[in-house]
Design goal:
By secondary structure, the protein is an alpha/beta fold. It contains 13 helices and ten strands. The termini are far apart.
Length: 319
């Protein structure tokens, strides 16, 4: 039986990290502003330190169990690496970060700015992780796993705690899934009391594939959100949390992701990654149907992108 974080552990994590992170703002808007029927409560987590929710888990992991003198090593599509490197720099620790070649240039730029040593190589996250593991085995550095580390998942759960305190009761909560760390933490906080739905792109559907198979399987990741949601296999903690506490996991197309990303930009001037628009994509495309007037929470989980790509994508969509 997988030991999931409980609410007491998440509360302790929040006390541990709150001086190192931002309490990110919440924006409540009518769904009509984005062309959908349910009303939305947006958690602007893309304004978090290091540009994503990942800072929560990274700080909790490093504070709950301080690393050795060799520092830390982390594999990432980009956002976890930025968060781990940012947390390490704040705590005076050495960081070696491994990202695949599909990692966005904007994310690589941010990683270099942290002062971490950046290694770029491999086709996807799984190959970057292999390189990270090899480095840790020879250097003695502590691996900070992006999503299958209990301290990391517990830290991600602080987002749900904070969101609940800010927004009160929601009728549903939609969470993008990569390796399962965020939804694992969020589901562990709510424990079914609030309906939680997961959203993946069709090209990154490793959680949906695992649920269909009844066990974790390898999934060939590809597409628009592969650098953020592209875990070939979901983590054991996230998988168990989803099986116990999540209502459903739905898949959306890359076109729906891009459309939702542009809606957030055009209507609200919110610059987020495609992965952060997954919840809106599920609603706008009809893959997830929720009642008109429902109060639905969306976590805009990452903002590490070049905003110029939004204008260029919009111009392409208009042609």
């Amino acid at each position: 039986m997988i030991d999931l974080p409980d609410r007491a552990a998440i509360e302790a994590a929040y006390d541990r990290i709150r001086s190192h992170i931002r309490a990110t703002p919440v924006l409540e808007i009518p769904g009509s502003a984005l062309g959908i029927e349910p009303n939305l409560v947006l958690k602007l987590e893309h304004t978090q330190i290091a540009g994503s929710f990942k800072a929560r888990g990274a700080f909790n992991a490093l504070l709950a169990s301080p690393p050795p003198a060799a520092g830390i090593a982390a594999a990432s599509g980009g956002n976890h690496g930025i968060a781990a490197a940012t947390a390490a720099a704040a705590l005076g620790l050495r960081a070696e970060i491994f990202v695949p070649s599909i990692s966005a240039a904007a994310k690589q730029k941010r990683l270099r700015a942290t002062g971490a040593t950046l290694h770029v190589g491999g086709r996807d996250y799984a190959e970057a992780r292999d390189a990270c593991d090899a480095h840790a085995a020879t250097s003695g550095a502590r691996i900070v796993h992006a999503y299958d580390d209990r301290d990391v998942v517990t830290g991600q759960g602080t987002l749900a705690l904070e969101f609940e305190r800010q927004a009160g009761k929601l009728d549903a909560l939609l969470i993008a899934i990569g390796g399962g760390g965020l939804i694992g933490g969020v589901a562990s906080w709510h424990q079914g009391a609030t309906p939680v739905y997961g959203v993946e792109s069709e090209g990154t559907g490793s959680m949906r594939a695992a649920l269909d198979a009844g066990h974790i399987v390898e999934f060939p990741v590809q597409g628009l959100a592969a650098d953020a949601l592209g875990a070939r296999k979901v983590g054991t903690i996230g998988f168990e949390a989803v099986r116990r506490h999540v209502r459903d996991v739905v898949l959306v197309t890359d076109a729906a992701l891009r459309d939702a990303q542009l809606r957030l930009w055009d209507a609200l001037r919110l610059a987020v990654e495609p992965s952060a628009a997954a919840g809106l994509a599920a609603l706008a495309s009809g893959r997830l149907k929720l009642p008109a007037g429902a109060r639905v929470g969306l976590v805009l989980c990452g903002g590490n992108l070049d905003p110029a790509t939004l204008e260029s994508a919009g111009e392409t969509a208009d042609k």
